[in-house]
Amino acid sequence: MSGSDPAPRDSASDPAPDPALDARPQLPADPALRGGVAILGAGDIARTAHLSAYRHWGVGVVGTWSPGAVRGDRPPVRDEFPFVEREFATPEELLADDAVRVVDVATPAAVRLPWVRAAVEAGKHVLAQKPLTSDAAGVVEVEEILAEADRRGVRVAVNHNGRWAPPWRVTSLLLRQGAVGDVVGVTHLHDKPLPPLVGTLFDDLEHMLVTDYLVHWLDITRLWLRPGRVVRVQTTESRVPGQPVASRNPWSATVLLTADTGATACIRVVGDAQATSGGAPFWVHGTQGTIRGSVLLRSDRVELDRDGDVRTLPTPGAWFTDAFAASMGELLTAIAQDREPENSATDALETVRLVLAARDSAAGGGAPVDLAAQGTGTP
């Protein structure tokens, strides 16, 4: 879930951006290097986001395995996506197919790591859904899997698709260019309603806001604070006026981050915000300028404020579903270029550690968690 906007948007008429600030998916030019993908666990999100994005951006899908389709609970994937070459009867059949180069592991989180391991042991590259894991034992298991991936010469990436939400991606590219100097602070605000939560599986997750809803926000903020390392995390949660008694999790959360550079960040969900046309605005303040923007609910925008000039930048595309193609595209491009992808599992583990620290702080009633003291400051 992670605060996503479920409504895809047609981006065909969007203006072309500056090539240096192009947030659109980047994939290998050779169609053969864009293919060989199989989806293990083709459930709701795979059908509404992954397959829609792959179809639009020319990612070749060898096949899918969907337990619902196998049982007959859901229509076959190929009924809606005929570009998919086949539907596998079992995950083992999918992993044994020599035509499969990359496995998109889209199973539920509780069974995700065993299938990531199985794909690696089958010699396949992997794009795993986030979060990779939700506990410290899982971090150790991921490290073991990555050691095996290194031995087998395969890449493991994580679908942190929020990194390619167009306004966030443009912001990341601006920061790489030093557009605002050194980052001083990052601020995010949720000026939007919460999705339905009462009675859902998400409400069964302890500290749901920081362990699921805000994972993309924690991930992108960690990246924007670079080269600083997050060394301190403090999370406060509260139930809010009007929140149903039946809801299990607090609806308000504030996460404060401090980097070893002295830069700080704040991520704030006020609750079920009542907004006619909401969004998720953000600010990145630097020593030489400011970036302002917003994502979701058709609020996408980015402006650069520097040297007395405010410039609005194009943000073609949309988080849903272009960013899903971009995440897979980065892995496919990294495989073609024999390098680590930006969204490597090694990098994603640092976000996992940050999420776990934010959860521990919330569980401790808002007591700060000192990552530096643990030797796990997140790069």
Helix content: 25-40%
Count structural domains. 2
- C-alpha geometry: globular
Task: Indicate the CATH architecture of the largest domain.
Answer: 2-Layer Sandwich
What's the total helix number? 12
- Computed over alpha carbons, the radius of gyration is 20 Å
Averaged pLDDT: 94
User: What's the CATH superfamily of the largest domain, by name?
Assistant: Dihydrodipicolinate Reductase, domain 2
For the terminal residues, how far apart are their CA atoms? 25 Å
How is the biggest beta sheet arranged?
9 strands, mixed
Give me the count of strands: 15
What structural category arises from helix and sheet content?
alpha/beta
Q: Tell me, what is the CATH class of the largest domain?
A: Alpha Beta
The ordered string of helix (H) and strand (E) elements is EHEHHEHEHEHEHEHHEEEEEEEHHEH
CATH fold-level topology of the largest domain? Dihydrodipicolinate Reductase, domain 2
Query: What fraction of residues sit in β-strands?
Result: 15-25%
